[in-house]
Amino acid sequence: MQPMTQTAPSASALPPEIARRRTFAIISHPDAGKTTLTEKFLLFGGAIQMAGQVRAKGEARRTRSDFMQMEKDRGISVSASAMSFEYGTYRFNLVDTPGHSDFSEDTYRTLTAVDAAVMVIDGAKGVESQTQKLFEVCRLRDLPILTFCNKMDRESRDTFEIIDEIQENLAIDVTPASWPIGVGRDFLGCYDILHDRLELMDRADRNRVAESISINGLDDPKLADHIPAPMLAKLREEVEMARELMPTFDHKAVLEGTMTPIWFGSAINSFGVKELMDGIAQFGPEPQTQSASPRNIAADEKKVMGFVFKVQANMDPKHRDRVAFVRLASGHFERGMKLTHVRTKKPMAITNPVLFLASDRELAEEAWAGDIMGIPNHGQLRIGDTLTEGEAISVTGIPSFAPELLQNVRAGDPMKAKHLEKALMQFAEEGAAKVFKPSIGSGFIVGVVGALQFEVLASRIELEYGLPVRFEPSQFTSARWVTGPKDKVEAFVKANPQHISTDHDGDVVFLTRLQWDIDRVLRDHPELTLSATKEMV
Ligand code: G4P
What we know:
The chain contains 15 helices and 31 strands. The chain is an alpha+beta fold. The protein folds into three domains: 16-283, Rossmann fold (3-Layer(aba) Sandwich); 299-395, Rossmann fold, CATH 3.40.50; 402-535, Alpha-Beta Plaits.
């Protein structure tokens, strides 16, 4: 397959190796077709040879465990990863986001590591709840968004209606990059508005790229050779109307995140995928400046800087390793480099970084700004940490969420309390849950953002530590981190032992079930601050 754009944009001020990188995530509601689209990306990126491979590998892995069984049963993807592949002269880094709403914390953080997002919607369902939530996070960061309206081979909504719904619900300008011809069983393909081409879907072979026919505008008589007259009349009328009613493509607005181009297609039939990939290559932004303190990091800086946006423990249960996913913000990294771990001010030799190519890992000999590297470590690297060549600079904007649900956790076997503590600390460091140790009594309280996370944790603790656990309702419903002058915090802790706990860093947390309690503390202790979230660094 020939990507449309063969050369990296020459207008870029960035070094070519950086300018050719496209680091993005796919956001969608479960079932919209993210997995299918990812698979086609990998197929067209030459990372896999055959569609079905990603799923097949997934299945093989899943049969190993109950936890993965749960993932399979519920149709959710729990373990996020990054995948890199070449597309024409471009290098795509696709960061996978777990799709289920209960894993939003992880998903949100993933979105801090990308420069753009592809929003996949189901043509029959339009904008669904999870898409809306994720979109709002992208909006907070002004991330450029490219939209793919999937499943056009099925009965879908009217094209104008879909576009209107996106505009209305998400408050973003939508410009059609392509226009569907027919729908459901009659879906023929699309008219490529940006390039005046006709793309015809091949229903016989799902892995074949559509036939692309260059035409000379909508009045070109050649169109009649491929499209039955009534459908052609409808297409002409609709595109004319769309051109009148909808904003025209504006690259700057797309980069600023105020306009999204929409492509229509059918991922399962490989249709529209190539156009979308070309769109990412051509319009998707190159690696962007990263916000940091005391100064921002520009992608073209010579020195290597990167930050941890995700930590995944026990990727290989045999080795108990932890992989910190690092987004390179600047520079050219070479294997073996010594970087400074800014939080601890300690040097770290990065000797065995990995790149994730399709579903395999490979030793990374080098990486450039925009790339995602996995750094195996023993727990030194935490979410939000920055690595530099010595400069004391920290990336900002990695969100931490207030735990909204609290439960007590107990080991099935009371003799195993120490093991449980170890497992919980591990997940706390991964950012998978907040763990509080009450100052009175034994046991732990776990805080999560979504209820399903309790089940995932219980399964992981059992699987990875051989430890059956029970989650039980807690008397508390809210957690607040307490900060203030040291003596005041200590006095407060002493006076309220029944409400006090510490998190995995040893920081003081006030637990309660009443907003009234929180108001009381704030009123009686104006020198203290109670925060619902804690900075990641
Ligand atoms: P997700 O990762 O967003 O959850 O979605 P996924 O790709 O798993 O797709 C969800 C379902 O939609 C799958 O069907 C998939 O085959 C189907 N699908 C994806 N793209 C298209 C498309 O363009 N057209 C049509 N008609 N269907 C599509 P399933 O029955 O749940 O799974 P499977 O048995 O096909 O694997």
